[in-house]
Structures are given as structure tokens and as C-alpha cells.
Design goal:
Layout (H helix, E strand, L loop, with lengths): L2 E8 L11 H14 L6 E4 L3 H11 L7 E3 L29 H18 L10 E7 L1 H11 L17 E7 L5 E7 L19
Length: 200
């Protein structure tokens, strides 16, 4: 039974203009070293500069692996929950999202799932793909893999260059192999992209 292995990574740490910082480049370098041992067949990235730059830095460790943009990976709110679904701490976050904007974001999120969250065709071999994207898109794919309600993408965060792995096989539910794994990063490079707080 062929398996689709998706390796999801948030881009490296970036500045206010969306450009990778020195820390971000080092994070991506270490992620690239980790992924270099895998039979990666493709690297897909968000159109935004911080993700595109991260993907191209990764490619230095993955020679001959094609790198391409995927519009579905762009940073966006995948689902605006109804007031009854919204935790109190998130309530103000969605102020200003009108119905058309929310619907557009949800269509894009569904396109992301349709393109990437599926098993290979039966006649195909296993596939191994890296998706360099953003925290909300990783949260949406994890939520989908767990068959959780749409609002459960809230509260799933990913650190810069943390690794999440999901596997897809025909006829079986997706398997979340790991989430937000930072073992390739030394302690001083972990947890960037998260709100401040005490970390294990």
C-alpha cells in the first residue's frame, strides 16, 4: 500500500519585513541537514518570501530535488469560527473578518487539503514531500488528519522550522507521526515563533 509522507515545516525566523534573519537561516540549515537523510522527492513552499527563502535554503541539502511554489500554502486564516466555537482568548482576533474574506480563506484551506492530504494512487510508489509553510496551515492539516472540528486549528502552533510529519494511505485514516518536533535545533534556536512563556 503506497504511503504519502508529508514533512511540514514552518519557515525560519523572519524579521518584520518577512525576510529570514540570521537565526532563521541557521534553523533552516539544521532542518535541511535532518531532511537530507530522507528520500525527498519534492519541496513545496508558500508564495511568501520567508517561506520561499527557507525552501531554497533547504534545497542546498537536497540536491536535484525540485523546489516549487504552491499557492495553497500561503499564510491565511483557514477557518473563522462562529462566536460559540471561539475560545474567549481568541474572540478579538477575528474582528474585521467579513463573510466573504472568511469564505475565501476557507476555500483556500480546503484546496490545501485536496491537493496534499491524500494517499498516492495505488500504482504509485511511496512519496516524500516537504511543505514549507506557516503555522496556521500546519495546524489546519493536523486538524484535518485528526478529523477534529474545524475550529480546533486554534491553539495548534508550530515553532520556526519545527517538523510535523503526517502519513496518508488509501483506505486508512491519516497518521500524525510527529508534531512540532524541534530535536534538530539546539535549545537557543527552539520556540521562536511562539508567544513568550516558560518552555520545557
Amino acid at each position: 500500500m503506497p504511503t504519502r509522507h508529508l514533512y511540514l515545516a514552518r519557515h525560519g525566523a523572519a524579521d518584520a519585513f518577512g525576510e529570514l534573519t540570521g537565526i532563521g537561516r541557521r534553523q533552516v540549515e539544521l532542518l535541511g541537514e535532518r531532511l537530507s537523510a530522507l528520500p525527498v522527492g519534492a519541496v513545496w513552499h508558500s508564495p511568501l518570501s520567508r517561506a520561499a527563502a527557507s525552501a531554497h535554503e533547504l534545497s542546498r541539502h537536497l540536491p536535484d530535488v525540485p523546489v516549487a511554489e504552491a499557492a495553497e500554502l500561503v499564510d491565511h486564516v483557514p477557518y473563522v469560527p462562529a462566536p460559540a466555537e471561539t475560545p474567549p482568548s481568541w474572540a478579538g482576533f477575528f474582528d474585521g473578518y467579513d463573510e466573504s474574506e472568511a469564505a475565501s480563506g476557507h476555500r483556500l484551506a480546503e484546496a490545501l487539503v485536496a491537493r496534499f492530504a491524500k494517499a498516492p494512487e495505488k500504482a504509485q510508489p511511496d512519496t516524500h514531500e516537504v511543505l514549507v509553510t506557516h503555522a496556521y496551515q500546519i495546524a489546519w492539516l493536523v486538524r484535518h488528519a485528526l478529523d477534529a472540528p474545524p475550529s480546533r486549528w486554534l491553539g495548534l502552533n508550530s515553532a520556526n522550522t519545527a517538523l510535523t510529519v503526517i502519513e496518508y494511505r488509501s483506505g486508512l485514516p491519516p497518521t500524525v507521526v510527529m508534531f512540532n518536533d524541534m530535536s534538530h535545533l539546539p535549545p537557543d534556536l527552539r520556540w521562536t515563533g511562539f508567544p513568550g512563556g516558560v518552555r520545557p
